[in-house]
Design goal:
Low-confidence stretches: none
Strand order of the largest sheet: 1-2
Number of domains: 1
Helix content: 55-70%
Number of helices: 4
Distance between the termini: 12 Å
Largest sheet: 2 strands, antiparallel
Shape: globular
Strand content: 5-15%
Radius of gyration: 14 Å
Number of strands: 2
Order of helices and strands: HHEHHE
Mean pLDDT: 86
Length: 123
């Protein structure tokens, strides 16, 4: 079921969300100081490609808090708003609600990506 959900996910906007993460990651990697932030964007793009069967666990500390504040000011708001808008559009229909919930999960990660760890859920 996860496989089918992830395939439909890519068609319903998951690829668009992953492209957003990759674009922001490439922008951050243009500077030497931004490379760790860009690498985190590339890691988190995996949840944008196949979110079903994955959960986000928060394991942040003081450094994560400082990076999250910097992230929100420079890149996080745009990614979070884009994912939240797509989630709202998908939640208009009953069939799109599971996909909209996944976009809301990604929007939360887009606001606070540092200290977030994506783990696979085993049922």
């Amino acid at each position: 079921m996860r496989f089918i959900g992830n395939v439909i996910w890519i068609l319903c906007g998951g690829l668009l969300s992953a492209l957003g993460w990759w674009f922001v990651g490439l922008l951050w990697c243009c500077t030497v100081v931004g490379i760790p932030v860009g690498l985190q964007c590339f890691k988190l793009s995996s949840i944008s490609l196949n979110p079903f069967g994955k959960e986000v666990v928060d394991e942040g500390g003081a450094v994560s808090l400082l990076l999250n504040i910097l992230w929100i000011c420079l890149s996080g708001i745009e990614l979070a708003i884009a994912n939240a808008i797509i989630g709202c559009i998908l939640c208009v229909t009953i069939i799109g609600i599971p996909f909209g919930k996944q976009f809301f999960k990604i929007a939360r990660v887009a606001l606070f990506p540092f200290g977030a760890k994506v783990v696979r859920v085993h049922y």
